Each structure stands twice: as C-alpha cells, then as structure tokens.
Amino acid sequence: MENESNGSIDRNHGRYGVMIKKSVVIILAVMTILICGWLILGLVSSLDIPSNKNDQFASEQKWRVDQRSDIDSCEKQIIKNQIDLKRANERQISGRAFQTQILALLIIVLQLILIVFVILIRRKPYS
Predict the structure, then answer these.
(1) pLDDT per residue as tens digits for the range 33-63
(2) What distance lies between CA 101 and its chain's CA centroid?
(3) DSSP code per residue over 66-85
(4) For 8-20, b where at least 16 C-beta lie within 10 A, e where not — what string?
(5) Contact yes or no for 67/41 (Cβ under 8 A)
(6) What is the pTM of this model?
C-alpha cells in the first residue's frame, strides 16, 4: 500500500514538473521575443530607408558648397569630404541596424517554433 501511494505521488510530481518546465520555457521564449521585437523597433530610426533621397540631399549640399565664394577651394574640399564621410557613416550604421534586425527576426521565428514544439510535445503516459 505504501509503495502504491509513493508511486502515485511520484507520477503526479512528474506531471507537475513537466508542466512547470514547459511554462518556464514558454515564458523565457516570450521574453526573448519581446526583447527582439523591442530591438527591431528601436533600430528602425537607424535605417537609411530613403537612401536615394539622402544621396541627393548630400549632392545638393556639396553643390551649395561649390557655389560659395567666401571660402577657398581647400575649405570647399574639406567640407565636401566631411559630407561624404557623414553619408558613408550613415550607410554603415544603416547596414548594421538592418543585419541586427534580420538576426532578431530569425531569433523570433526560432522562438515561435520552440513554443509550438513545447506546446505540442506530450509526455509518455505512465504504465
């Protein structure tokens, strides 16, 4: 009699242990999804989405520098180089932000697959 009651307690503890493990995995996966979503949304401002428009704006700035007569050619070249450098930095930042967003999106997809598997996996019934 004593062995039967211990066996049923172990079986119930095993079921609850699996439920707790599943819930912990699901909670951690949801937290990861939320953090990656926050990261994606935070990096949207770093993207250089209208790149043609920004390139055109940089060209207009350089043209305005060329039209100025109050500075000499060396200063004009320095200012144009600064404009080009700023534009190159914006492109690099945008590229890194895009790569980070793609990686975060892949992590979200993997976490969603993990959640589906955890929910669908059933434990073997005790015999």
Answers:
(1) 999 999 999 999 988 877 778 888 888 888 9
(2) 4
(3) HH-SSS-HHHHHHHHHHHHH
(4) eeeeeeeeeeeee
(5) no
(6) 0.69
